[in-house]
Amino acid sequence: MTRFGEDWSRGFRDLILEAGVRALEDCGLSGSEIEALYCGTMASGALVGQEHAGALIADFMGLTPIPSTRLEAACASGGVALRQAYVTVASGVHDIVVVGGVEKMTDVPTAEASYALGGAGDQEWELFMGATFPGLYALMARRHMLDYGTTQEQMAAVAVKNHANAAKNKYAQFQNEITIETVMKSKSVASPLKVFDCSPITDGAAVVVLAPLEKAKKICEQPIEIVASEQASDSIALHDRESLTKIKATEIAAKKAFERAKLAPKDIHVAEVHDCFTIAEIMAIEDLGFVKKGMGGKATEDGLTRIGGQVAINTSGGLKGCGHPVGATGVKQAVEITWQLRGKAEGRQVKGAEIGLAHNVGGSGATAVVSIFRKVW
Amino acid sequence: MTRFGEDWSRGFRDLILEAGVRALEDCGLSGSEIEALYCGTMASGALVGQEHAGALIADFMGLTPIPSTRLEAACASGGVALRQAYVTVASGVHDIVVVGGVEKMTDVPTAEASYALGGAGDQEWELFMGATFPGLYALMARRHMLDYGTTQEQMAAVAVKNHANAAKNKYAQFQNEITIETVMKSKSVASPLKVFDCSPITDGAAVVVLAPLEKAKKICEQPIEIVASEQASDSIALHDRESLTKIKATEIAAKKAFERAKLAPKDIHVAEVHDCFTIAEIMAIEDLGFVKKGMGGKATEDGLTRIGGQVAINTSGGLKGCGHPVGATGVKQAVEITWQLRGKAEGRQVKGAEIGLAHNVGGSGATAVVSIFRKVW
Questions:
Q1: What is the mean pLDDT of residues B127-155?
Q2: Domains: count for chain B
Q3: B5 occurs within a structural domain
């Protein structure tokens, strides 16, 4: 992956190229061995005027004439690209497949980016009416506070933990630790969410390489198996949801993924979950089954999701600390889990991590992808 | 599919819903039997402010919580969605899969749509420098005229044939026949291309349903087998291409598709090819191997590509006559081929059609998808 952040010196294509070269170097493959390419990007049309990103990337990575396809599911674009590549390897149509995710978000004014990102929700019923994404997640936060007594300090604890992790990750956008007070005193964005409850606008790219397991074992010394990758959908507008305090698509995708992997939440040592807002991480750890519904805030406050706790959540720093180049996030999660299972996560390493999970959400929860990874050497 | 055209009364979601309901009615399946959804749309973000179209469509078709994914490859978005759904069925991960394509293009001014469509080429090297899509194809047309003596009248013959076919298709945007003179006297867009050399701006949607062959035979009386679906990429900017007079990605995808299908161009009875401009159809029939390189113009003028000719090209009316809602086009091609192989193409039926081909191009040729279909009952 690239170092995430505000990158004024490089464009969309430079970012994915850098991540791509690093991924190929890591596995020691040459471009001529790659059979297909999938790329997640959410809003390259609105953010850099570039659609048709699949072909662009194949071109700039020197991989033409292989099939190269862009996938999009808002902030879950990287996750669906990863899953579709996994399905493709399973089909036998292609063996060695590169999956990238990329977003260049800082080339347009923030208001323009906000409008583009609003397209992740229901344009007619939400965006057109003035609902921004912080606004939508603020509704979820308010309801979670009302139903379960979740506090703003508990949400702040998510940001504090994730900044602490990011501070140990040289690829993270933010490298500074913060305190509960930093969050509580920061400017309100959409009450009860404050600036430090929100993930940032980020430029970045991430790439992984997939192959059938037996082939992967020959290619690299530390292959990671994707034991499951499941995806689910829900109504795109909040007003049609069964509940405002859970992401039903996460529950469904997680249930299927655990079943396919023959594993349970207690088996997971390390997980990257979708914390676009602090309340989103609290809901995620509940919906994924790591803690009981309603207990996500308290669990975070009690340190259960820290490195060394019951389950290490967002060791990369998550979307909050590591940054959130939307299309890249789902692939970056796979990169972090790979580093963790390989014991290469440096100062943020989870000891003995053998099984990891990545959880990527699109929009306010209309898409969720849950993938489970296992060390196999 | 929906009737293609300028549709002022309905929105993006209404179009795909109508096509989706028709497809499910056609095969007699209920929504609960659908396991996954793929949707091609090129620029819903720029054209209707809506990204995350996969989830939106699952929602409005009442198909949540199934996985639903948007794919994009410019004007080949429908083609890549079809191919990815085919790969997914082949993987065994999902059996019954719905593939849609949709674009609502008339909700923004034409200049805005043109800019969005320009994102199908290289934003930095082409669009930003002022090259529009008619401009890019005009370069190809000029070179084809220079190298092979292709004439403007031969290009006009493509439009005349495709309008004649469209006039027999109740789903087509244009239902009027035209003459060579109509084309030759129409306003210049980017010389030598005139208004009637260009496909129109169109609203529309198309949907097909895929299943493993044995299952499809149980579900419907007239199943069509996809015997091959291949995709290739090329440099996104024209200036990096090997040649301006062919689409290399078409050549490569076609070669692979014919190999996999164990068929040759002469075996094809009916083909939908990507005629975004008249010159594009001339190059397509050459690159697909239906006629020798350089002979596409003459073959068209001589009537070899008419219904009843050597191979019937664009019986639907093609992009020129039937219309070109970009994300829908690749799926519409599959719909037309299905109708042809089922003998249900009414006044434009190709007698005894048993094998068909669909050819979908993204941008100026950086993506091409070629699929071959066979009647199997």
A1: 97
A2: 1
A3: no
What is residue B105's predicted lDDT score, i.e. its pLDDT?
A: 97
Number of H helices, E strands in chain B: 14, 11
Evaluate whether residue A130 is within a structural domain: yes
Model pLDDT for residues B5-63, shown as the tens digit of each residue: 999 999 999 999 999 999 999 999 999 999 999 999 999 999 999 999 999 999 999 99
The alpha carbon of residue A368 is apart from the nearest alpha carbon of chain B, in Å, by 9
SS3 B268: coil
CATH number (domain holding residue B148): 3.40.47.10
Phi and psi at residue B224, in whole multiples of 5°? -115, 130
- pLDDT of amino acid A111: 87
Nearest to B232 among A46, A67, A128 (CB): A67
Please report whether residue A4 resides in a domain.
no
Angle between helical axes of B152-166 and B278-287 (0-180°, round to 10): 90
Is B367 close to A68, i.e. CB distance below 8 A? Answer: yes
Whether residues B72 and A88 touch (CB distance < 8 A) is answered with no
Residue in chain B closest to A54 (alpha carbons) equals B73
Cβ pair A336, A186 in contact under 8 A: no
| Structural domain span for residue B324 | 12-375
pLDDT of residue B208: 98
CB contact under 8 A, B233 and A63: yes
Span B323-350, average pLDDT: 98
Average pLDDT, chain B: 97
**Residue A136 touches chain B, beta carbons under 8 Å:** no
Name chain B contacts of A68, Cβ cutoff 8 Å. 233, 367
From the list A65, A71, A236, the residue facing B56 with the nearest CB is A236
**Least confident range of A92-106, A184-198, B102-116, B289-303:** B102-116
pTM: 0.97
Q: Check if A42 contacts B (Cβ < 8 Å).
A: yes
Stretch B344-350: mean pLDDT, rounded? 98
Quote the CA–CA distance of A169 and A153 in Å, as a whole number.
Answer: 25
In a domain, B254, yes or no: yes
Asked if B73 and A58 come within 8 Å (Cβ–Cβ), the reply is no
Decide: B120 and A45 in contact? Cβ < 8 Å. no
Q: Is the CB of A84 inside 8 Å of chain B's CB atoms?
A: yes
Longest dimension (CA), chain A: 56
ipTM above 0.90, yes or no: yes
Tokens of B252: 């490569």
pLDDT for position A58:
97
Q: B-chain residues within 8 Å CB-CB of A230?
A: 67
Within 10 Å of residue A253's Cβ, how many Cβ atoms? 32
Distance CA A70, CA A91 (A): 19
Task: State the pLDDT at residue B111.
Answer: 87
pLDDT in tens, A267-289: 999 999 999 999 999 999 999 99
Could you give phi then psi for residue B89, rounded to 5 degrees?
-60, -40
Residue B213 · residue B358 · CB < 8 Å: no
CB of B90 less than 8 A from some CB of A: yes
Q: Respond yes or no: is residue B75 known to be catalytic.
A: yes
Provide the strand spans (E) within chain B. Answer: 36-40, 68-72, 97-103, 188-190, 193-194, 204-210, 224-233, 270-272, 312-313, 355-362, 367-375
Q: Is B307 exposed, middle or buried (0-12, 13-18, 19+ CB in 10 A)?
A: buried
